[in-house]
Amino acid sequence: MKIGFIGLGHMGSAMAKNLVLAGHDVTVFNRTPGRTGVLLQLGAHEATDIAGVCRAEVVITMLSDDAAVAQIALSGEGLVANLPNNAVHLSMSTIGVELSRRLAQAHTQAGQRYVAAPVLGRPDMAAAGSLFIAAAGDPTSVDACRPLLDAIGQKTVWIGSEPAAANLVKLTGNFLQAAVIEALGEAIALIGKAGIDRRAYVEFLTTTVFTAPAYKIFGPLIADGMFEPAGFAAPLGYKDIRLALAAADSLRVPMPLANLVHDRFLRLLAQGGDRLDWAAIGGLAGEDAGTRQHARIAPL
Questions:
Q1: How, if at all, do strands 45-46 and 25-29 pair?
Q2: Which burial class, exposed, middle or buried, applies to 250 when counting CB atoms under 10 A from its CB (0-12, 13-18, 19+)?
Q3: What distances in angstroms separate CA 38 from CA 14, 31, 172, 226, 254, one per listed residue?
Q4: 155 in active site
Q5: How confident is the prediction along the chain (300 residues), in pLDDT tens digits per residue?
Q6: Which residue is catalytic, options 2, 155, 170, 193?
Q7: Is the whole model's pTM more than 0.85, yes or no?
Q8: Distance, CA of 118 to CA of 100 (rounded, Å)
Q9: What span, in angstroms and rounded, lies between the C-alpha atoms of 51 and 194?
Q10: Which residue of 13, 74, 272, 292 shows the fewest CB atoms closer than 10 Å?
Q11: Do β-strands 296-297 and 25-29 pair in parallel, antiparallel, or remain unpaired?
Q12: With contact defined as beta carbons under 8 Å apart, do 43 and 27 qualify?
């Protein structure tokens, strides 16, 4: 397929690479220059502007936040203004429900198609093509994107016909992961202050009744205090919790635990934790207990 790809951060670069390796004709565009070298060596093309990347059947966006996606898609020189009739905007960014609805409406009015397909997984999973994908939109449009989703992820689940549903699913998924991080942090702080080996404790948990990937990923990070380099930066986690709470507010759904992890992120960022992995909120309980600093840097 002829593909445009916008957003070459840690996740986007790995996803675009897998599309190239799968044999798709990929043209990339990134707002920050200097990130296309490896992709061009593999056979990708580089566009100098958004119009150039829009000469495609599908344009994928993998950007950091709502502001970036809105600028790329809705500005006068953006996707809506440049995508061909019936082309698909495949939005794989983690964005808010309201923006997703705006995008769906704008693309429909322009005679284009819109599919939301945010991903669950960290950069290593993106590199391995093993992300989990929640996709929503018109079934025919989602099916048109299946070859791309199959190159990027190990499993895609269709959520429904309204694209924004996939974005809400992703936001609640990140809320659940943040809640796991907080719970692990508190438990590890308690056993650590009691003199029990943190690593042994995490090994016990993750090989018995807590075998889900979230526990296996975040437990060792919290036990070792290894929060740099960030696989998923704390400001992005904070952003996602804020978006989840905004959706909850619009639907009048109280989320007391989400408010708790919101404040944990806010504390971490207030203390200068912008460069840390979002798992660093799990280190705050140790600080509260007087037993642990909230960050160490992993050895290279």
A1: parallel
A2: exposed
A3: 10, 17, 34, 28, 46
A4: no
A5: 999 999 999 999 999 999 999 999 999 999 887 788 899 999 999 999 999 999 999 999 999 999 999 999 999 999 999 999 999 999 999 999 999 999 999 999 999 999 999 999 999 999 999 999 999 999 999 999 999 999 999 999 999 999 999 999 999 999 999 999 999 999 999 999 999 999 999 999 999 999 999 999 999 999 999 999 999 999 999 999 999 999 999 999 999 999 999 999 999 999 999 999 999 999 999 999 998 644 444 443
A6: 170
A7: yes
A8: 11
A9: 60
A10: 272
A11: unpaired
A12: no
* Residues 161/162/164/165 CA torsion (nearest 10 deg): -60
User: Which residue type occupies 38?
Assistant: V
E strands present in 22-170: 25-29, 45-46, 58-61, 88-91, 113-116, 119-120, 131-136, 153-160
Structure tokens of 75? 């500005």
For the chain, the farthest-separated pair of C-alpha atoms sits apart, in whole angstroms, at 64
DSSP state of 279: G
> Which sign does the torsion angle of CA 73, 76, 81, 82 carry?
negative
